[in-house]
Amino acid sequence: MLYFKTAGESHGKCLIGILEGFPAGVYIDEVVINTEMKRRQGGLGRGGRMQIEEDRVEILSGIRKI
């Protein structure tokens, strides 16, 4: 089973995500994730805040209990 946990504030300095139960050996590419997040920022119905904020993913730790 896949679990996704978050911590932090949506408009704070950062939002932390913890993904548990992700299958071993799956490659995760920050560039691909950031490209999709940038594309999301330009979506319809977005407020002015979306124009001044830049969402970016940064993977800070690795795999645990391999």
Provide a brief overview of the structure.
This protein is α+β, with helices and mostly antiparallel strands and 66 residues long. The chain has helices at 30-41, 49-52, and strands at 3-8, 15-20. It is built from two helices and two strands, in the order E-E-H-H.
Structural descriptors:
single chain, 66 residues, alpha+beta, two-stranded antiparallel sheet
Describe it for me?
With 66 residues, the protein is α+β, with helices and mostly antiparallel strands. It has one domain. Helix content is 24%, strand content 18%. It contains two helices and two strands. Strands 1-2 form a two-stranded antiparallel ribbon. It is globular, with a radius of gyration of 14 Å.
| Total number of helices | 2
- How many structural domains are formed by the residues? 1
**Biggest sheet layout:** 2 strands, antiparallel
Overall structural class, as computed from helix and strand content, comes to alpha+beta
Percent range for helical residues?
10-25%
Instruction: Average the pLDDT over all residues and give the rounded result.
Output: 78
Give the distance, in angstroms, between the N- and C-terminal Cα atoms: 16 Å
Radius of gyration: 14 Å
Question: Any low-confidence stretches, pLDDT <50, length ≥5?
Answer: none
